[in-house]
Amino acid sequence: MAEGADREFSGEAEILRRAADEYDSSNPDFPIDPGRTALLVIDLQEGFVAEGARMWTPENLRILPRVKALIERCRSLDIPVIFTEHAHDASGRDKGLMWDVPLNRPIREGALRTGADDVATYHEIAPVAGEKVIQKHRYSAFFDTDLHTYLRGCEVDTVIITGCMTNYCCGATARDAFFRDYKVIFGSDVTATDSRDLHEAELKTLRRGYARVIPAGEILDEIGEP
Questions:
Q1: Fewest CB atoms within 10 Å of the CB: 36, 66, 142, 192?
Q2: Which residues constitute the domain of residue 198?
Q3: Is residue 10 part of a domain?
Q4: Within a 10 A sphere around the Cβ of 108, how many other Cβ atoms?
Q5: What is the CA radius of gyration of the chain?
Q6: Going by C-beta distance under 8 Å and a sequence separation of 6 or more, which residues neighbour residue 209?
Q7: Residue 15 in domain
Q8: pLDDT, tens digit, for every residue of 69-106?
Q9: Predicted TM-score (pTM) of this structure
């Protein structure tokens, strides 16, 4: 073991205590201006939401009523609602390293092929005419898509993030949005993953360094009524 590896430094305990407090309680001051905001619905597809689907994440069904309420309120306020759908060509030429990690084994085995039924946004929250749908091939909705261009066209500076895989697609999208200077509102109870512990850990990380993390009820209160 390297010399000093177990050494306690002066002030170390205070630094660690402050960091722990910030992970639990800090939140950036990103207000929601409905006229400059878009709602992102990340990968709530048949293949992730429908019971028994190959990529099924059960928690998606629990968050669905709150997601639906947010979608409906945003539509009533003319806040753009943008859906993403993760898909891969049957040839695998767009897969990169995505099929090489354990999380995506079902995709490697045939799930979420472009044009297949499991790629479509879950039927209970299907996009309506005129709503933007983005197909993506990586975790982040910004990577190699026209999302940034579309948001600029909407004159948006704030994104509300909801959807599937808190610590993968939602978290990656939140980080990329922050890097592009969007104010990120991350819905704590309208995002879901396959581990409650990792959901909470991701919320803590995002809250401290990337996003304002708040529940759907608080988002609805802030964007207001039609």
A1: 36
A2: 31-223
A3: no
A4: 15
A5: 19
A6: none
A7: no
A8: 999 999 999 999 999 999 999 999 999 999 999 999 99
A9: 0.94
